[in-house]
Amino acid sequence: MPAAIEFQNVTKTYGRRFRRETVAALSCVSFEAGAGEVCAFLGPNGAGKTTSIGLLMGFHFADSGQIRVLGCAPGDVRAKAQIGFLPENFAFYKFLTGPKLLRMNLALAGGRSTASPDLIPELLAKVRLQGYEHLRIGKYSRGMVQRLGIAQALLSDPQLLILDEPTSGLDPAGRKDILDLLAALKAEGKTVFLSSHILPEVEQICDRVVILDHGRLVRSGRLREMIASDRIRIVANGITPELEQTARERGAAVEHGPNGVRILVDPASVREMAEALWSNGCSVVSINPVESSLEEVFLRLVDRRKEQA
Amino acid sequence: MRIWTIARVTLAGFLRNRVLILFTAVFVFILLSELTDLLAMRSAARHVSAGDISPVMGEIGEILDLVGAFGCALAAWSAADTVASEMKSGTILAVMARPVERWEFLLGKYLGVQLLTAIYVVFGFGFIHLLGWIGGQQIHTTPWVLIVYPLCRYAIYSSIAIFFVTFAHQIVAFGGAVLIAILASLLKPGDNSLAFVPAAVRNVAYVLLPSTALLSEDRFLTITKASLAKITWDMHAFAVAYGLNYAMIFFLLAVWSFRRRGLSRE
Asked: ipTM of this predicted complex?
């Protein structure tokens, strides 16, 4: 599957005017998102997600490394013609109405002459903004602005959707509508690259996950692999408190359950832990891979980085 | 089509811009105050003699200078504000996410400013005739020069401001353009305001700064005599070409400076 988005060793620093100090926003970040995939772009606040999206769209320029979007350099109008984009906290011309803003965007996309006259009413209906055609955007609620942002991102039937916090500001029903919409786009074969903090929702639709923290890539890969092989659960009986303490010191999570003590370890340290249990006379009941939620994987990876730092 | 769309939205934004509306309201208030003086003088002059008409004409000249100065300020402020406010609010991201080149965005913004100054120039054109009528004079000139010359002047100051705003704050950009306008007016031949500056420096500055005297309607419109000074077509063509060339240089500098500018919300 060809990559819709490619980041190769991308570094970006921001300098302060009249000062020599610089802030590293991204350090040697590399990842890919395949065509037709839904790729979740995750990270805590200040991780470098919005900077990365800015680089993808050509709003900023990387200090080093290479970025390709739909086979073109960022900012190339050939790529932008196939991208639907929703920035974080989208801002519109407040004096326009929703349909006027969409018509303006259609003209900017060069599709005004070829577009169906029903396109704009259909899009407004899709994001549940019908009935507000005469209301100026300045009077819209936060959720309505977000819905309009999604409508304008879908305007020119894009191959790639880049969405920065698409469900931000929406109520639960609105978030569900957007997730259903993204699932429908995925079924149509569109590539979706979205950043979000609401991980349980993202997990429902994404194929691939890229996690950043403090400008560095923490992990990237397919969601199934990430949540399946992430931890191994060892259930054992006859564990002494000293052995429990040793397991915790080695980074394992220890819980007491009805069938014995459950020890969660990384795949890399499962052999070492099992041998320690056997050599101390414990009986190992089972060793199984544990499927974690995306949120658990994310929190573990980010917490581990914090500890390392 | 894309450039024209940006220009139209820019103009629509200007017509709702609170700072510009306030700016214009203050200007209209000043004009009306000046007009009150003019009407009083004209009324008095009618009952005295034809020789007393000169103070009326002096007042008209002052008002015209005010209209020209406000036009420069309007062009510089609107050019600086339209780019800066897009960056500040983040609306630029929605526009630049479309298949729009950076130079197309700037050109659209620039044309939007020119549409605004065109409205102002048409207003100024009507106002000159109104003043002439109040002053009891008829203005004998071809209309196009009263429209094209000020447009050229405003195009210069808006291009300077749009260049400055690609790397500086909008207040600095506006201030820089106004400062250049003031310096240019002080450096015109025959004005000794800057006599203390060495001649070599003045000469260089005269070449570098926009020559507003060259693009002034005063060169051919002698309102006090209500006559048209003779200027040949080729002289008009050179003056207009000078103005457009000067504006284009600064616009191209703006495009060059804007090509690597980060576009995040400020």
From this structure: 0.79
